[in-house]
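Researcher: We're teaching a course module on how sequence relates to structure. For the next exercise, students receive a sequence and then see the predicted structure as C-alpha cells, so they can try to spot secondary structure elements on their own. Here is the exercise chain.
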Amino acid sequence: MLKNVLVALDGSEIAERVIQTLNDLMFAPDAKVILCHVFPTPESERELPADRPHPESSQFPNFQIEKQLLNYKENLSFNSELELVTGDPAVEIIRLANIYKADLIIIGSRGLVGMKRIVLGSVSTQVVEEANCSVLVVKPA
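Model: And here is the predicted structure for the students to work with:
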C-alpha cells in the first residue's frame, strides 16, 4: 500500500483527471496525501513565451488556485494536506517528494508533442526522469 503520495496540480483542466485518478487508488489508513501547486518565480516567468498570458503573475489567480486545491481537499475521501510553493515546477515537485519521502508522485501531462514540447518543455518528463520514486503520469482524455 502507498503511504506517502505527492499530487502535483497546476490549475489546468488536467487537474480534474488527476484528482479522479487519485480517488481510484487504494491507500493505507495512515497514508499521507499531499496536494501541491508550484507558483513560478519571476525568473521562470521571464523564460515563458511573450505571446502567452501569464496569469500567475497577479495575486488573484494564486487565490483561485488555492481555493481550487482546498475544494479538492474537502471532497477527497481520505485525509490530505496542501503545499503551495514557489519555484521551478519540476524542481519543487521533486524537492517536496524528497521531503515527504513520497512513494509515488501523481502528475498530469498536457500531452504536448513536437515543437511545442521542445519549446515549452515538459514538467512531467523531467519529474519522471529525476524523481527518486515512482511517478504516475495522467494523460489528457
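Model: If you want an answer key for the exercise: The radius of gyration is 15 Å. Confidence is low (pLDDT under 50) at residues 50-60.
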